[in-house]
Amino acid sequence: MLLILKNTFAQVFAKGITSIVTLVITIFLARYFGASGYGDFTKVVSLVTLGYILVDFGFNAVFLQEKDISFKTLFYTRLLIAVFLITILNIVVFALPRSVGAIGFSDNVRIGIFVFSLTLFVQSILQSSTAIFQQRKQYEHLFVSVLVGSLVSVCLFFFIQAYSALTLSSALLSLLIGNIITAIVSFIFAKQSISLDTLSFGRIKQLCLKSLPLGAMLVFNLVYFRADIIILSFFKSSAEVGTYGLSYRFFDFLLTLPLFLTNALYPHFLDAEKNNRTSAEVGIKFLTMSLPVSLVLIAIFWIASPLLILIDPDFYKAIVPFRILLLSLPLFFASSILQWVLIAKKQQVFLVWQYLIIGTLNVIANVIFIPTYSYIASSIITGLSEALIVVILSLKILHSKNNFHYGKYN
Q: What is the pLDDT of residues 95-137, one digit of tens each?
């Protein structure tokens, strides 16, 4: 228990530092550009971070499960994917029609996407190093890596602001350089060899095939999780994108708790399955513990949400979508734990179909309702989608548990 808490808090602190740095930059961008400028920032970050999940693709989970997958294979697989994604992303973005007024993707946004897309390459290094930290249960190394990189980002941001005009590209550049430092420090901590002399493309293919169900599940999961902001970018002004983006930025920070809790729990789920115990029982134990935590967080941030206007008076509109999103926080705690219980049970194929169906329904609902109800619709649809996921995952685990007991006693 203490080890799980230690690893979880180490990751939360690391993510917290990153979020604080991003929030500081967000505050400056909001004050300098207003809601519209932050909307452009949101468009860039939301679109590029869609690629993060493809760089992830569930490779770490397979690496931890399969002893014949080396770190070198994991590392170079991600590098190849990152290069491919950077190329495709920039071709697609620059081929899109020019923005009409404040709707769409302006030239500044396109340049920002090019700059920030390079973080995909950096993420491939960081996520590979994180696999080693997971394996060794040494998440404090992740914390130190992110701390060093974040401090560099902050220093560069203020330096750029002091000696030149503040632009979207300069803010994103400071984040990129900080991410590079984070990746370098994390790789040093990982202490892994990556020479090319024994690299096997057969192993790369093996890793991709074994990760395909989990990777597809994560992709479909992210589609419904991030599609609303992308759809908003096509139908609504940058100011509305910025309003929703700010509310989601704060909500996303809260989601680090269930995310990193399950990262710390996953090796224990695997141990439970290997030792003829059920990971569902371990998951339910932590699920009951997470519920009161999520309720306390809802109460605190519901009361504090009017403070969003301290960033800029224009952001008073972000209070309503933020509060709507807050109500779904317990559902995200539940789905995150239940999802990784099923992954430990090797139910990735089921999860792929589940997230594909719900992701499709989510996108359709957003396309239908965003033109009329804007980000209010997005906030509600996010909560309803997560509720449906929790119901489906719970039923699947209950069914699996019943089958386990039936097979055991009959």
A: 776 665 556 677 888 888 999 999 999 888 888 888 887 777 6
CA–CA separation, 341 vs 327, rounded Å? 24
pTM of the prediction? 0.72
| CA–CA separation, 296 and 301 (whole Å) | 9
Residue located via tokens 């997560």: 386
The alpha carbon of 17 is separated from its chain's Cα centroid by a whole number of angstroms, namely 15
- Residue-level pLDDT at 410: 39
Q: What angle do CA 352, 366, 243 make, to 5 degrees?
A: 115
Q: Residue 231: CB partners within 8 Å, gap ≥ 6? A: 363, 366, 367, 370, 378
Residue that has been written with the tokens 């933020």 in this structure: 322
Structure tokens belonging to residue 33: 């550009």
Backbone angles phi, psi at 288, to 5 degrees: -70, -30
> Tokens in use for 127?
């996520």
| pLDDT above 80: residue 297 | yes
CB 117 within 8 A of CB 90: yes
The HSE-up count of residue 115 (CA atoms within 13 Å, CB side) is: 20
User: Side-chain half-sphere of 283: how many Cα atoms within 13 Å?
Assistant: 31
Contact 315, 35 (CB under 8 A): yes
Exposed/middle/buried for 26, CB within 10 Å: 0-12, 13-18, 19+? buried
397 within 8 A of 351, measured Cβ to Cβ: no
* CA-wise closest residue to 67 among 210, 186, 269: 210
Query: Tell me, what amino acid is at 298?
Result: I
The answer to whether the beta carbons of residues 176 and 122 sit under 8 Å apart is: yes
**What phi-psi label fits residue 34: left (phi over 0), alpha (psi between -120 and 50 degrees) or beta?**
left
**Mean of per-residue pLDDT scores for the chain:** 78
What is the CB neighbour count within 10 angstroms for residue 96?
Answer: 12
Pair 145, 14: CB distance under 8 Å: yes
Q: Which domain holds residue 190?
A: 2-409
Compute, in degrees rounded to 10, the torsion defined by CA atoms 158, 114, 93, 26. -20
- The count of domains in the chain is 1
275 phi, psi to nearest 5 deg:
-95, 25
